[in-house]
């Protein structure tokens, strides 16, 4: 059968009367088109059902690969700097040990208060009070606040503050107020909150 005749049959075909049960008598070109259509749908369905999940898995694995490469590079850099990091850790531990030695134990706090009293007396200041507040426990240390109030002239008070700051034990100064003394306009009254700290593990180790 010629191609022209086949094309004529397609043009003369009433598409509304086509019945799938009579597909065997359809023009061969129409049968070929239907076969190609079925094949295309089948290939698309297989790709969607089989290839798409595999592609998603591939994308997921590629994402994991990128993360693993970043982790490897990070760990490789850490390994290359391991000796420097160990040296830094030793330096930090040494500094921490020095700072721990500057923290008084609970038993040493009274002696620290005596040192502060002596600093006030040495600077010819009169002490109104020097009293401890209740300690405040933290995870690694115990905060030991105490109130100080002294009287004297401006320069001697300044020297007293410098002496307290230079004590071998750590003392921090807070909430300072400096006013003219009510009883003597030539003198000043300094009131402040001071804090020292005790390392809790050291205290527990001595118990």
From TrEMBL:
- Keywords of this protein's UniProt record, alphabetized? Coiled coil, Membrane, Transmembrane, Transmembrane helix
The record's Gene3D superfamilies line, in alphabetical order, gives: 3.30.70.60, Helix hairpin bin
Pfam families per UniProt: PilO (PF04350)
Coiled-coil annotated spans:
75-102
Does the keyword Transmembrane belong to this entry? yes
| Entry-linked InterPro entries | PilO, Transl_elong_EF1B/ribsomal_bS6
- Report if keyword Coiled coil is assigned: yes
Query: Membrane-crossing residues?
Result: 28-50
Protein name listed in UniProt:
Type 4a pilus biogenesis protein PilO
From which source organism is this entry? Halomonas tibetensis
Upper taxonomic lineage: Bacteria, Pseudomonadati, Pseudomonadota, Gammaproteobacteria, Oceanospirillales
């Amino acid at each position: 059968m010629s191609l022209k005749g086949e094309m004529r049959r397609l043009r003369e075909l009433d598409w509304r009367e086509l019945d799938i049960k009579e597909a065997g008598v359809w023009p061969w070109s129409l049968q070929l088109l239907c076969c190609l259509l079925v094949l295309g749908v089948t290939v698309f369905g297989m790709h969607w059902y089989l290839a798409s999940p595999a592609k998603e898995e591939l994308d997921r694995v590629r994402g994991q690969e990128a993360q693993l490469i970043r982790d490897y590079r990070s760990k490789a850099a850490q390994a290359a700097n391991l000796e420097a990091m160990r040296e830094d850790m030793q330096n930090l531990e040494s500094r921490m040990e020095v700072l721990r030695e500057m923290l008084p134990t609970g038993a040493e706090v009274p002696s620290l208060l005596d040192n502060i009293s002596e600093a006030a007396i040495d600077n010819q200041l009169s002490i109104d009070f020097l009293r401890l507040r209740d300690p405040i426990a933290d995870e690694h240390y115990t905060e030991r606040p105490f109130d100080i109030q002294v009287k004297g002239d401006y320069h001697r008070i300044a020297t007293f503050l410098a002496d307290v700051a230079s004590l071998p034990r750590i003392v921090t100064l807070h909430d300072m107020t400096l006013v003219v003394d009510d009883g003597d306009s030539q003198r000043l009254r300094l009131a402040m909150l001071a804090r020292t700290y005790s390392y809790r593990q050291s205290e527990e180790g001595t118990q």
